[in-house]
Amino acid sequence: MIRLPWAVFFATFMVMVWTTAHGIYVDKGNPYDNGTLDVQTLTISQHDAPLLTKVYYPRQIDTYAVLFFTGGLLGVIPSEAYSDVLERVASHGFVVIGVDYLPLAAGPATAR
Question: Long-range contact list for 24-31, CB < 8 A, 24+ apart?
Answer without folding.
Answer: 24/63, 24/64, 24/65, 24/93, 25/62, 25/63, 25/64, 25/93, 26/64, 26/65, 26/92, 26/93, 26/94, 27/91, 27/92, 27/93, 29/92, 31/88, 31/89, 31/92
